[in-house]
Amino acid sequence: MNERNGFSVAGIPFAVLCIALAAIGVAMMFSAIHSQPDTPALFPMLSGIVLLVIDGFLLKGFFQVAPNEGQVLQLFGKYAGTVRTEGLRWTNPFYTKRSISLRVRNFESGKLKVNDNDGNPIEIGAVVVWQVLDTAEAVFCVDDYENYVHIQSESALRQMAQSYPYDAHDDDKPSLRSHGEVINSHLRDEIQTRLGKAGVQVVEARISHLAYAQEIAQAMLQRQQAGAIIAARTKIVEGAVSMVEMALDQLSKRGVVELDEERKAAMVSNLLVVLCGERGTQPVLNTGTLY
């Protein structure tokens, strides 16, 4: 079932018509009463009453449409269309009307506890921005479209979280923590697939909370710290070796001093200690030779 335009006309002209009918009906009744106070004329009296009844019936056809709102019309349970034109409108008085908001809405899911692709328990939450695109599907294809959006969004979030590891062990493989754009795009597509049948469009979906579960948080923190230390040490060693190589090369090119292999080894050892050590070094002055 897809949305289609429902029948409605501008309400102001019909409001003028209803006022005119009411005035005519009241005038006819008063005319009948005043013309013959004892026995009012039956036809003018009945005509005035009929006009007032018709006028009251026509008043049921008036309704208002606010900006970014749709009125779903039904005739004895059958879908008759949707009116999105703003302002005062008039339609068939037999139609029943249901207001559906077309505004952009958002909600934040709870903190869900799931296992990532590596089997580690994590806590994850998301913010979903959505709006109704097809009012007929939203009303008639699902029971409660707002509750449907919430439940299916959390289901999609669980499914997405199980497809990626928390941390990237390979630069080419996306992870929840390092590839935000890829993860958010996948989450939006996953939610949209589930909500398409409810006439809902997902404007944006993004991760709002991501952390290891409490039972492994401390162990994973130590693992991250160890990885950071190893990475830092690797950079330090690479830089120190480059500096030692550059120092030996410059000494050789400029002829500052001639070093044999044993003295080169001693110099390399001392420079690496200075460059790679965590604490400040204390030099030892040698007043003699190395032998």
- The mean pLDDT is 84
How many DSSP-defined strands?
Answer: 10
Q: List low-confidence stretches.
A: none
SSE ordering:
EHHEEEEEEEEHHHEHH
Main pleated-sheet profile = 4 strands, antiparallel
β content, as a range?
A: 15-25%
Radius of gyration: 40 Å
Q: Shape, please?
A: rod-shaped
Task: Bin the helical content.
Answer: 40-55%
**How many helical stretches?**
7
State the end-to-end CA separation. 96 Å
**What structural class do you assign from the helix and strand content?**
alpha+beta
Characterize this entry briefly.
The chain has 7 helices and 10 strands.
Structural commentary:
By secondary structure, this protein is an alpha+beta fold. Helices cover 48% and strands 21% of the residues. The protein contains seven helices and ten strands. The chain has helices spanning 11-35, 42-59, 135-140, 145-161, 180-195, 214-254, 261-276, and strands at residues 9-10, 62-65, 69-75, 78-83, 87-90, 96-101, 105-108, 112-115, 121-132, 200-212. The strands form three sheets. Strands 7, 8, 9 and 10 form a four-stranded antiparallel beta sheet that branches. A hairpin with a 2-residue loop joins β3 (69-75) and β4. The chain starts with 8 loop residues before the first strand and ends in a 15-residue tail after the last helix.
